[in-house]
Specification:
The protein has 2 domains: 116 residues, 2-Layer Sandwich (Alpha-Beta Plaits); 67 residues, Arc Repressor Mutant, subunit A (Orthogonal Bundle). Helix content is 58%, strand content 15%. Helix 6 packs across helix 7. The longest helix is centred in the first third of the chain and has 15 residues. The relative contact order is 0.13.
Length: 188
């Protein structure tokens, strides 16, 4: 599943040079978009995270850029608010959304918390229960389906519907961690 790698720098990013560095570091398919001269995002699969950990020190040393990145499952207000939060407090690093939301809880960052609270309002209660049970079962689909007293195929169908509705693939650890934190925030 594709993910979004948002980035923001402390000074102007030389677009062509940055794109060449990404091309040299990551040979798979990706899409690079610039919002302005300081920020943008890359759309790629989850393997790009490993390339990013190699790329950031090069960007920081060779281009002299203090760059911060955030990995998210979709582009929305929460994603951009998280990038701003990371850039303000956690520069020169790469963060997953769940880690930042966790940090925001303890920093009293109400903007991010409010975005999290509204993100799942449109999701059907049955799908939320399915996803929450999956998390509670340690990402074990068989155990979750037994806890819900439903057939495994029914569970898989509901989980897939949750993923389609939210863009959040909770079979991935980092996205599951974000959902775990989001549940805590929603039911606080």
């Amino acid at each position: 599943m594709e993910q979004y790698f948002l980035f923001k720098a402390g000074r102007s990013i030389p677009n062509n040079t940055f794109k060449e560095l990404v091309n040299e570091t990551y040979r798979e398919r990706f899409e690079l978009k610039f919002n302005d001269h300081l920020s943008g995002y890359i759309v790629a699969d989850s393997r790009f995270y490993d390339a990013l950990s190699l790329l950031l020190p090069v960007v920081n040393s060779d281009l002299g850029l203090s760059m911060t990145t955030v990995v998210v499952h979709r582009l929305d207000e929460l994603a951009w608010a998280s990038l701003d939060f990371a850039f303000k407090y956690k520069r020169q690093s790469c963060w997953h959304l769940g880690d930042l939301v966790f940090e925001a809880m303890f920093s009293g960052e109400d903007n991010i918390i409010n975005h999290v609270k509204t993100q799942f309002k449109h999701v059907d209660h049955e799908l939320m229960l399915t996803a929450q049970t999956f998390i509670d079962a340690g990402l074990n689909a068989t155990s979750a389906s037994k806890k819900l007293y439903i057939h495994r195929n029914t569970f898989n169908y509901r989980l897939q519907k949750f993923i389609e509705q939210t863009g959040l693939d909770i079979r991935d650890y980092h996205q599951a961690f974000y959902f775990f934190i989001a549940i805590k925030i929603i039911y606080m």
